[in-house]
Design a protein that fits this description.
Helices cover about 10% and strands about 25% of the residues. It has three helices and eleven strands, in the order E-E-E-H-E-E-E-E-E-E-E-H-E-H. The chain has helices spanning about 50-60, 170, 190-195, and strands spanning about 10-15, 20-25, 45-50, 65-70, 75, 105, 125-130, 135-140, 145-150, 160-165, 180-185. The strands form two sheets. It has a seven-stranded mixed sheet with strand order 7-8-9-10-4-3-11. A four-stranded antiparallel sheet has the order 1-2-5-6, with no helix packed on it. The protein is globular, with a radius of gyration of 17 Å. The model has no long low-confidence stretch (mean pLDDT about 90).
């Protein structure tokens, strides 16, 4: 389902909490319109992506993501001198230290260029599968966190796509975060797509990335 029309905050981060983020979603009247839609889809929006690049990079059969404008996101990066969390401790047991952390706008790190301005002493690491695409992950626990493309096409804001598996459980459990469409459906794996056809919940399917085109 689409994100609610009211303002909301979505928090998350990597498995060891060395990388944390917060998405401040404004009321729908202040959200940009998706340039490749019929005008009814606003940014941020949630998707299930079936492209081969996202499948391989995430290690999952599909990738669920929150496609956000970069200016709506802030990020907190622990220094590399930070101690490792105790072994055999699950993510949900780690203490919430968000209030004590230092935060910066994501635009300070994910600048509109072909490189990242990542503090050298942080755990955030980047991989560039192509000249215009950057994927980031935590160099300590290995969690894949973001996807970004520079430059963006005309009419788009700078975007930062965040992998939904990194969203905090208490946020992710809310019904409003259910992905509201499939993208790159035309590139998906047949038997994987059949699982979604059988789940009884029909959401739009788009053959590639343009939301005006439907399967």
């Amino acid at each position: 389902m689409p994100l609610p029309a009211t303002a909301l905050t979505i928090r998350g981060g990597c498995n060891c909490r060395a990388v944390r983020y917060e998405i401040s979603v404004p009321p729908i009247s202040n959200r940009p319109i998706h340039p490749y839609s019929d005008g009814s889809v606003h940014i941020p929006f949630t998707v299930i992506c079936h492209c081969n690049d996202c499948r391989c990079a995430s290690g999952g059969l599909v990738l669920a993501g929150i496609c956000s404008a970069t200016h709506m996101v802030r990020i907190s990066l622990l220094p590399r001198t930070s101690p490792m969390p105790p072994l055999q401790t699950t993510r949900v047991e780690l203490p919430n230290d968000d209030a004590e952390r230092a935060w910066v706008p994501a635009q300070d790190v994910f600048r509109p260029s072909s490189t990242l301005d990542v503090p050298a002493d942080s755990f955030l690491r980047a991989y560039k599968p192509s000249e215009d695409v950057t994927r980031t992950f935590c160099g300590r626990c290995g969690t894949n966190v973001t996807y970004s493309r520079h430059p963006m096409p005309d009419d788009w804001p700078e975007m930062l796509d965040i992998l939904m598996g990194t969203v905090d459980k208490e946020c992710l459990e809310k019904e409003e975060l259910k992905p509201d469409r499939h993208v790159w459906w035309g590139k998906g794996i047949g038997w994987v797509k059949s699982l979604f056809d059988e789940d009884g919940r029909e959401i739009p399917k788009h053959p590639l990335a343009r939301l005006t085109d439907r399967v």
